[in-house]
Fold this sequence. Notes:
It contains 4 helices and 5 strands; from the N terminus they run ααβαββαββ. By secondary structure, it is of the alpha+beta class. It has a 5-stranded antiparallel sheet, with helices on one face. Strand 2 and strand 3 (99-109) form a beta hairpin. It is globular and about 45 Å long.
Amino acid sequence: MSERLERVSLTVPTDLLAEFDDVVTDADYDSRSEAVRDALRGFVSSYRWRDDLDGRHQGSVVILYDHDVTGVTDALLDLQHDLHETIISTQHVHLSADRCLETLVVDGPAADIRELVRRIQSLRGIQQVQLAVVGADDGATSVHSDAGASDGHDH
């Protein structure tokens, strides 16, 4: 049974498209379209997983952003103050003249963590946001990350 397909048009930065094309080639995709479909499936799956979180959790939110975008640094700082009960630690690293990496260690209700990630993703200048949940209030050792998996050790 064939799947109905829709044609869409995207506007992306040239350097991102070049990186994407490298991945398409390296991963041996038949086309950009197939790779985009794969990426979209992963994005939707990650969003749904995050949306289904319940209870209290601990983990980290990793943010890559362009600090030259007007207002993004102040917006992130304001957000951290607004949600200080969920964010228990932060680390800021200058990766280049214009790119910063910020790691927020979080502890709190899943709904608050979801709200934090949603608000960060909506900011202009944010290039990437990754959530890794590494614990739950019940002492569970299950690990899920939008980007990777557990090392299998209980600590």
